[in-house]
Structures are given as structure tokens and as C-alpha cells.
Amino acid sequence: MAKILIMEDEELVLMALKETLEAAGHEVVACDNGLEGGEIAHREGCQLAVVDIFMPQQDGIAVIMELKKLSPTTKVIAISGGGAVVRDFDYLEYARALGAVECFHKPVDPQELLETIEAVL
What we know:
alpha/beta, five-stranded parallel beta sheet, 24% strand, Bact_response_regulator, Sig_transdc_resp-reg_receiver, Response regulatory domain-containing protein
């Protein structure tokens, strides 16, 4: 199974994602902000990162750009619970343009997420 990094600032969402992925046999590292997530990715590496778009300290867009620069083989799945479209600007589509392999609006369906992870890895 894969080593997966989850970056999500909503504690309940973070715990649900972590439990779902661990139950499927993945090794999961989790944090609640983009800055810490970038540091973890740089220090520990991961095969896949699940990145919330709107987080404190460093947003998901900046994290995706950093991940793709420092670790181009790391797959990224972007998620967003609100504000994903602002003034006709779709942040999830922008995340996809930056290299996210898939994007989900919250709430994320656990089975769909697991199927996507299996497909991209």
C-alpha cells in the first residue's frame, strides 16, 4: 500500500480521511495546514498527497505547486469544501491544471476516493 499525506484543516474531515485510508491499508501522515504539509512532504516523502485548497499558513494551490516542483512523481488529489469557485475562478480546476490528478468537492465519498487512489497509484 501507499504512503499518503493528508493536509486538511477541518479536524473531523481530517480524521475521517485518515481512518478511511488506514482501514484500506495505507500508511497515513496527516497535518492541518499547508506549511507543515510541505515540510512533511519534503522531509518524509509520500506517494500521494490529499490537499485541501483553503488552509491556514499556506493554501493548497501553493502546496501543489511546491510538491510538483520538489517531487514531480508525487500524485496529488485536491479537495475543497467551499469557495472553490470565486468570481468565475474555479480553484479545483486550477489545481488540476497545476498537476492534481483528481479533484473532489467535500464531502468526499470514501469509496470514490479509495477507487481514485487505487487508479492513480
